[in-house]
Amino acid sequence: MQGRTDGTRHVRRMNPAINILLEALAPGILVLAASGAVLPWLRTSDERARAVMAVVLIALMWRYMLWRWTSTLPPFALSIDFIVGVTAVRLSECWAL
What we know:
mainly alpha, 0% strand
């Protein structure tokens, strides 16, 4: 560490794009890890486990839909932006089915 008089080390900062990506993917990674840890221990014939998994899946689906409709669409107005946004969301959700 020649040339530094304050004795601090150079810390490399994380790329903001990677930070945003990790923040967005963290819930999915957490659910995947939790299901990977729990599912092998469950019997395939256990209806309670299937019901719990269905409830978790439905909750995650509705959380996604709420985010999709509240955070990614332009504000409600009779404008081209809003109409195109709603049309795009509806088409993409229908395409996913």
